[in-house]
Amino acid sequence: MFRGKIVIVGAGFVGSTIAYTIMCGGLFNDIVLLDINRDKAEGDAMDMAHGVSFVKPVNIYSGDYSECADADIVVITAGANQKPGETRLDLLRKNAAIIKDIVDNIMKFAPPDIILLTVTNPVDILTYITYKVSGLPKNQVLGSGTVLDTSRLKYMISRHIDVDPRNCHTYIIGEHGDSEVAAWSISNIAGMGMPEYARRTGKCTEADLDMMYNKVKHAAYEIIDKKGATYYAIGLAVDRICACIAGEENSILTVSSIFEGEYGLCDVALSVPTKLSGYGVEYILEVPFGESELEGLRSSAQTLKKYIKELQF
Asked: Is there a catalytic annotation at residue 160?
């Protein structure tokens, strides 16, 4: 069992929820919260620390960037919040400068084998910026990508067909945002593709698939309209990513990672099924998606690269 150290930069709703979820999982000996609001980070750490008698032994506390010196993973969640009616890409200019400053400070102390996991939105562009600013090998930099979107789609399918979501096999690929793509061509229930499942059961018709995809694509906006932010499910998603890396599971998740020729794409971070190991991103799988899905993936890449070019990264 891995019992290393994780540093979480940003003690807002997302950062503190990630810290709490990871604390409950018992995978790390040390969990450190950093935030520009030092009192908030310290208060959250104290609040969680008072419950350590109920979980596996763990040290949870607040600190500064020097805590990155012996960290295994640094999770970056700090940034401006997404406001109602605001797209993830609207956040770009505000958060790009914040992420650059954070990564500069992390790299003053971080060991050569540090793994950086970006969660701040728009996560794909900020993952790419993290990669460029850090100077780390591409396997050591990743984003939370469409891991949450994929989970949302599994949930939608499970509710639609009354089957455990863990038995609903599907992926959301591309951008974590408005141009994301549902990979229906490789989705299946018990080995049956969606057209075959629809033929046999009358469920998961093309209309059903469109309905579920649109619900997933607009889920974050709906939650933000209702309560101001999303944080519980992303906390679980980040915990899952960290467990894959720290536990050396060799699992496949749709994290956002740096493309260098995969699917004919370069110099961009996007989400497709990706193998994670103790080294971070081990490799990107080139899956035989349908042509319309590949077109959507390429469209995602073009959209993101346009914004990256404007930022001159």
From this structure: no
